[in-house]
Amino acid sequence: MPSDQAPQVGPAAGQVLFQTAVSSTLENVRLLADAACGALAPVLGDMDLIKVQIGLVEVANNVVKHACRESGDHTLRLSCTVDGGVVTLVLEDDGFPPAVDLNRNAAASGDGPAPDGMAESGRGLWLMRQCFASIRFESGNGVNRVVLRFEPEA
After folding, report:
1. Angle, to 10 degrees, between the axis of helix 102-109 and the axis of helix 124-131?
2. At what angle do helices 124-131 and 46-62 cross, to 10 degrees?
3. Which secondary structure element, helix H or strand E, spans residue 18, and what is its range?
4. Distance separating alpha carbons of residues 52 and 47, to the nearest angstrom
5. Which residue, 14, 32, 43, 84, has most beta carbons within 10 Å?
6. Angle formed at CA 100 by CA 98 and CA 105, multiple of 5 degrees
7. Residues 47-79: pLDDT tens digits?
């Protein structure tokens, strides 16, 4: 007997669309970003995918460099959910906890002008804020977590 309901297209609200884990190397950051964007391709447009990829690569590179201290002995876990068109990416690692309040630094970084384009460092949090609607850092019980909320362009 046919259903009166329209067929469901895409993931259910809040459903995990994608999840994976890789060792904490810079080479694997590209794999994470490519896999996430591949899973999100049916949900987001090209320009939104570019923003997600740029932001996710920046976040994951910083995790590998700072939390994992460029050691492949740690694990990066990435999951992605979609709810009402809003994408939430959660990147977890088992590296060292941050020595500074990243939530405070991230909030302050999005308010000011663009950092010096010629600077060798110091643009990461600003760039992340340009790509994601919100960024939240959590750390405890041996796990660091970055929660990235992406809202597609209207």
Report:
1. 70
2. 150
3. strand 15-23
4. 9
5. 32
6. 115
7. 999 999 999 999 999 999 999 998 889 999 999
Q: How many Cβ atoms sit within 10 Å of the Cβ of residue 28?
A: 18
Backbone angles phi, psi at 147, to 5 degrees: -105, 120
For 80-146, give the DSSP string: EEEETTEEEEEEEE-SPPPSS-HHHHHHHHTTSPPPPTT-SSS-HHHHHHHH-SEEEEEEETTEEEE
- Cβ atoms of residues 142 and 94 within 8 Å: yes
Q: Is the pLDDT of residue 103 over 80?
A: no
Rounded Cα gap, residues 5 and 55, in angstroms? 37
Instruction: Give me the chain's average pLDDT, please.
Output: 84
Strands, sheet with 75-83, edge to edge from the N-terminal-most edge strand: 15-23, 75-83, 86-93, 143-150, 134-140
The reported pLDDT for the residue numbered 113 is 60
What span, in angstroms and rounded, lies between the C-alpha atoms of 92 and 66? Answer: 13
pLDDT > 70 in the chain, percent: 79
